[in-house]
Design brief:
This protein has 6 helices and no strands. By secondary structure, it is mainly α. Among the domains are: 51 residues, no CATH class; 49 residues. Involved in pre-mRNA splicing.
Amino acid sequence: MEDHRKQMQLKEARKVGRAPAEVDEDGQEINPYIPQYMSSAPCCGAMTNTTKTRMERPRKLGAKWTSKNIAPNEKIETFQLDYDGKRDRWNGYDPTSYAHVIERYEACDEARKKFLKDQQTKKLEEKGNTQNVEEAVSDDEDNEETSVLETLS
């Protein structure tokens, strides 16, 4: 309890400037205003991470001199496009990929129609009208399609 109180007082004194700043293992002063979670955060080591933005010291030997094959974390693509090509919002779009969406929609539509047909046959069987089941179902589908066409026009 006493140690914790002393540490808190020392931390406050460092923030105000009455006590000397803490020193890391390289002899650099540690900024007392940096939160603990930021100073202890590990460096993710991505290719786009530069030495200026790092919170920790760099490796003693880089991958260049250790003869280890370290693969890049990110794929950086470069394009040689003209003025219009840079501003083309559909650049790289493959219209054949949309065919999958259409197929999935049509499959769902077919499954919905089959489900509705099964429901109608069950209702008609419950009523006892098993003779003209197919005719009634096909008439209902025709009526549904014509009502949709009428609303669209």
